[in-house]
Design a protein that fits this description.
Number of strands: 4
CATH architecture of the largest domain: Orthogonal Bundle
Distance between the termini: 174 Å
Strand order of the largest sheet: 1-2
Radius of gyration: 54 Å
Strand content: 5-15%
CATH superfamily of the largest domain: lambda repressor-like DNA-binding domains
Largest sheet: 2 strands, antiparallel
């Protein structure tokens, strides 16, 4: 007599059987070159593979969150990240040293008067020296003005003592007429018996005295 035993129910859960079936199917179709592109296409754009939470096993959608639990780094889903938020590893951005180009503007140099301009002055009888030198060379005021690059009226006013030439003009007159029109400040006016190591410097009061003295001498020469 043939006896039939009762069928024993399967102890494997249906969910695992379903996963195993999918795995066998994927292995089968992976051998086909037609489906190879479909299998190797990354499902997660961040790591190229399907990531699962290392705590709960759920599939991670989007970028995973890294936590440090008991000294171990784990990739977890957003739900577990909220639950273990105090263990999230914060990535510190690298400090990049930025160099800003500083624009340098050209410094404007201050125009300081030359030392020789401060130490020299026009002689008192400049007008007489210029007139005599011009006449001795046989030059007219017009010719001297052309050589000097000035107007004839300027030469006339200088010879009349109504216009004092500048230091630059005096140097040009010295070169053309072969005369001396410049002298060191205070050389012919004052004499001091001070020690040679001590240098004399004019004060504002001294300059006023010299100017008044010149004006008085000009007035006397005009009246004569």
């Amino acid at each position: 007599m043939i006896t039939f035993e009762k069928s024993v129910p399967c102890a494997i859960p249906k969910e695992e059987i379903r996963q195993y079936s999918k795995l066998i199917y994927l292995i089968f179709i992976s051998r086909s070159s037609h489906c190879n592109r479909f299998i190797t296409r990354p499902a997660n754009k961040f790591f190229g593979v399907n990531l699962e939470c290392e705590l709960c096993g759920a599939r991670i959608q989007g970028p995973p969150t890294r936590i440090r639990l008991d000294g171990v780094l784990l990739n977890v889903c957003s739900t577990c990240a909220k639950r273990y938020s105090k263990y999230i590893v914060r990535e510190v951005p690298r400090s990049t040293t930025s160099y800003t180009k500083v624009r340098t503007w050209p410094t404007r140099r201050r125009t300081v008067p030359r030392l020789e301009e401060l130490e020299y002055e026009i002689v008192e009888d400049y007008n007489i020296r210029i007139r005599k030198a011009r006449e001795s060379l046989g030059l007219t005021r017009e010719l001297l003005a052309q050589e000097l690059g000035e107007k004839e009226s300027v030469i006339r006013r200088i010879e009349e003592g109504k216009l004092v030439p500048t230091l630059d003009m005096a140097r040009r007159l010295e070169r053309i007429l072969k005369i001396k029109l410049l002298e060191p400040v205070g050389e012919s006016t004052y004499s001091y018996s001070e020690a040679p190591s001590r240098r004399f410097s004019l004060t504002l009061g001294d300059i006023v005295i010299i100017r008044d003295r010149r004006e008085k001498e000009k007035e006397k020469s005009d009246t004569i």
